[in-house]
Write a structure and sequence with these properties.
By secondary structure, this protein is an alpha/beta fold. The protein contains seven helices and nine strands.
């Protein structure tokens, strides 16, 4: 919770029209500390079953709450344990006249690129919703496709040994990367200027992007 409070403190100092907090905790959460920091924050709780694939959980959470976002407003999405650093800046107003999406990505020349979902800018909720739906489909279906020699052998093996479900799933970062590499209206940034502790790490690893 303390990391989320720090995120809200940093966001509250920016010229944002509104701040939305989406939470999927199944246990009751006390948001009083957050509301003391910013009483105008809009909090939406959507308790949900959690899968091992944390990116799938994140995508479902946003989709379950996205209807509450304004229609034509640009969005800055950031995960609760990260926060903008001293070099962070909101994009120019003209950015979304040319681009639908902006964020930090790398290895876009590979079959499975990486696009950070810790924080990114998106033109509006319609664009975000479409991307998240595609990302879920990509995460779940990728292992059933043929992407090289190894996946070809796996596919042939499946023909003789029927299996249920998927052998493995892409992360949300990988799914975003595979989708966005084929789009022309994406701005890849060298850094988005956020920092924080990596989620789910056994030790506290502080990162900057």
């Amino acid at each position: 919770m303390q990391q989320t409070v720090e995120t809200i403190i940093r966001l509250s100092a920016l010229p944002l029209s509104s701040i939305y907090l989406f939470d999927n905790s199944t246990n009751k959460v006390d948001f009083s500390e957050i509301l003391q920091v910013n009483k105008e924050i809009k909090i939406f709780s959507s308790p949900q079953f959690t899968f091992e694939n944390k990116g799938l959980n994140e995508a479902l959470l946003i989709l379950n709450c996205i209807h509450d976002l304004p229609v034509h407003t640009p969005i800055f999405k950031i995960s609760g344990r990260y926060f903008p650093n001293e070099n962070f800046g909101l994009p120019d107003d003209n950015l979304f006249g040319k681009y639908d999406f902006a964020g930090f990505g790398k290895e876009f020349d590979r079959a499975v690129p990486y696009f950070s979902t810790r924080a990114y800018f998106v033109k509006n909720k319609s664009v975000l919703q479409s991307l998240l739906v595609l990302a879920i489909e990509e995460m779940l279906s990728y292992s059933n496709g043929i992407h090289g020699i190894k996946s070809l052998f796996i596919s042939i093996k499946k023909k003789f040994k029927k299996s249920i479900g998927t052998d493995y799933q892409l992360s949300l970062e990988q799914a975003f990367g595979r989708i966005l590499k084929h789009k022309q209206n994406v701005m890849l940034l060298k850094a988005i200027n956020i920092e924080g502790y990596i989620a789910g790490s056994d030790f506290k690893e502080f990162i900057k992007e």
